[in-house]
Amino acid sequence: MRHVFETMGTVVSLDAAGPSPALLADIEGIFADADARFSLHRVDSELSRINAGTLSMLDAGPEVGEAYALAAEWRSRTEGCFTPTRPDGLTDLNGVVKAIAMRDAGAALVKGGIQDWTLVVGGDLLASGRAPDAGPWITGIIDPADRSALLCAIELREPRTAIATSGSAERGDHIWSAAGRSEFLQATVVADDIVTADVLATAIIAGGDRMLRTACGRWPIDVLTVDRAGRLSATPGFREALAVPVAP
Amino acid sequence: MRKRAVAGSILASMGILAVGWQIGAATAVTPSTTSGGASGTAGASGTAGASATTAASGSSSGSGSAPAAPSAPAAAPASSSGLKDGSYTGASEQTFFGNVQVRLTISGGRITDVKALRLTDQGGRSVQISNYAAPILRQEVLASQSAQVSNVNGATYTTEGYLQSVQSALDQAKA
């Protein structure tokens, strides 16, 4: 069953069998809380007030501190390719907030006794367990040259069940590259957790080939990139995960 | 096609090893020969490729790395290239990517093998040196499209963007 709702300026699609209305309300609440706290489109959000100088980060809720610490840690790990600081100096935690909410929603589903589900939020995906046909969940990856078409499809096998795609053609308001135009049009990262997948997809768009090499060598991830000429590159694990074609 | 792709990934891996070798060799590779004090002579002659022997044994670059260890007892006489046959183990070297240590084998005056003995990240975990993205042909991935997908993954979309998305169509089909 699909449960679709709008939050954080995008849409959440939850595919799960049998979640209770109370559990669904909890899941929606996780995203609503994050939006109320971190949205820069709301002048009264804690993060907006921190940016305006009317609230100290130390006086904000612990969730703000956790998100900022996580973003700062990833900035250091990616040598600044991923950063919570916008060029205009404002703090924007969108790069980790959505992934943290997805992580927490996934934990709530498992705690609620739901084992098999997928959660798609604004193009990023977290999966658990098996698809209704008892096989692995299969997800398509959008072709950046034609957003109504798929580039390929892969199987999400445990433990690598989190997948995030970043694109330089999109609004991608948390990708700021000092180097200017990205070498890559699109970067897809499959990881064991959604924060790692989301952050590294962003970092690879911002940091280009150098960051791609660093990321592949340093974290257990599978990657597919599309460069500006439409050329693809993939890690061995990504090739192996390519879905088996259906016989014609 | 598959063959080309595999060859590509192998070449990519070799590129990494070559970098690793340069890091190790340029700073602290000690010849493993046992011919008295002669170990420095090949390097002193200043021939091409002599970086493998120029480390003046023991002066391991001061980066706090382990001393180089001899790993082969005997060596053949130096060939015309100035490189003595044998195995040479570099010191463990701290680099931007973590600790790197390589061993190279010289046979007939040529480098015939380079092995990464140690490659770790800054957290000390061993690194999957084969996990590098290599070129892949579009045709290679296209066939997978025909699989039955339950969701799609793409660059972030907004609420408006969702309405035109493949995800939206799938959600309606599976509602």
Report on this model:
The complex is a heterodimer of chains A (248) and B (175). With 248 residues, chain A is α+β, with helices and mostly antiparallel strands. Chain A has a single domain (2-244), classed as Roll (T-fold), CATH 3.10.520. Helices cover 36% and strands 26% of the residues of chain A. Chain A is built from 6 helices and 10 strands, in the order E-E-H-H-H-H-E-E-E-E-E-E-H-E-E-H. Chain A has helices at residues 21-38, 46-52, 62-77, 94-111, 194-218, 236-241; strands at 2-7, 10-16, 117-121, 124-128, 137-143, 146-156, 162-167, 184-191, 222-227, 232-234. An 8-stranded antiparallel beta sheet of chain A has the order 1-2-3-4-7-8-9-10. In chain A, strands 5-6 form a two-stranded antiparallel ribbon. The radius of gyration of chain A is 18 Å and the shape is globular. Chain A starts with a strand and ends in a 7-residue tail after the last helix. Mean pLDDT of chain A is 92; it is low at 170-174. Chain B has 175 residues and is of the alpha+beta class. In chain B, strands 1, 2, 3, 4 and 5 form a 5-stranded antiparallel beta sheet that branches. Chain B is elongated and about 75 Å long. Strand 10 (232-234) of chain A pairs antiparallel with strand 6 (134-136) of chain B.
Strand residue content of chain B = 15-25%
- The span between the termini of chain B is 40 Å
Mean pLDDT of chain A comes to 92
Which CATH architecture of chain A is right?
Roll
Q: What count of helical segments of chain A does DSSP give? A: 6
Give the total of beta strands of chain A: 10
**Over all CA atoms, what is the radius of gyration of chain A?**
18 Å
Within CATH, the superfamily of chain A carries the name: ApbE-like domains
Classification by helices and strands of chain A: alpha+beta
User: What's the overall geometry of chain A?
Assistant: globular
Q: Return the CATH class of chain A.
A: Alpha Beta
Level of helix content of chain A? 25-40%
How many individual helices of chain B?
5
Overall form of chain B:
elongated
Distance N to C terminus of chain A: 28 Å
Q: Which stretches of chain B are low in confidence, meaning pLDDT under 50 for 5 or more residues running?
A: 1-75
- Largest protein interface? A-B, 68 and 48 residues
